[in-house]
Amino acid sequence: MARSVLKTSEMSANEAVKKTEDRSTQPMERRWEPRVECSLPAEVAISGRPIPPVHAIVRELSACGLQLRSTTLIDRSSAVRIKLPGLVVFGNARYSNKIYGGFESGIEITGIISRNGTSARLAGEQILKLVNSSESW
């Protein structure tokens, strides 16, 4: 019986090592909220810049943030206003990395206002549903 217990614990240790190895090859997910992939046209106004709003594409959404692609660098910590169909998102730039053909920027959401003036904390799926159900501004 002791032999059987030893075999079981050895198997568990081997499985644990394998799981640790599998995890070590995967990037660590640091997101707080689930994200939703999308492709939404947006206009981005960058605080402190005397330029017209920048055209961008929102690539991912969550309750806490979004990722967008544009041809313009958004300086880290810049306040932004992102106009989407049916709502306006306010936030702060967390990063802006150069990619082929432009920049990929991460925005931390600080507020959302819908077309009817209501403000709420929404999950990525809820934001997407609002945008998809509304008409263009």
Comma- or semicolon-separated keywords:
about 140 residues, alpha+beta, Thrombin, subunit H, 6-stranded antiparallel barrel, 2 helices
Helix and strand composition category: alpha+beta
Radius of gyration: 21 Å
CATH C-level name:
Mainly Beta
Number of strands: 6
- The stretches of 5 or more residues where confidence is low (pLDDT under 50) are 1-28
What is the H/E order? HEEEEEEH
In whole angstroms, the N-to-C terminal distance is 74 Å
Number of helices: 2
Q: What is the overall silhouette?
A: globular
Describe the biggest sheet? 6 strands, antiparallel, barrel
The CATH homologous superfamily is termed predicted glycosyltransferase like domains
Strand order of the largest sheet: 1-2-3-6-5-4
Give me a quick take on this structure:
The chain has helices at 2-24, 124-133, and strands at 36-46, 54-61, 65-70, 79-84, 87-99, 102-114. The chain has 137 residues and is of the alpha+beta class. It has a single domain, classed as Beta Barrel (Thrombin, subunit H).
Question: Can you walk through the features of this model?
Answer:
The protein is α+β, with helices and mostly antiparallel strands. The protein has one domain: predicted glycosyltransferase like domains (Thrombin, subunit H), CATH 2.40.10. The protein is built from 2 helices and 6 strands; from the N terminus they run H-E-E-E-E-E-E-H. It has helices at 2-24, 124-133, and strands spanning 36-46, 54-61, 65-70, 79-84, 87-99, 102-114. Strands 1-2-3-6-5-4 form a 6-stranded antiparallel β-barrel. The longest helix has 23 residues, at 2-24. The chain is globular, with a radius of gyration of 21 Å. The N and C termini lie far apart (74 Å).
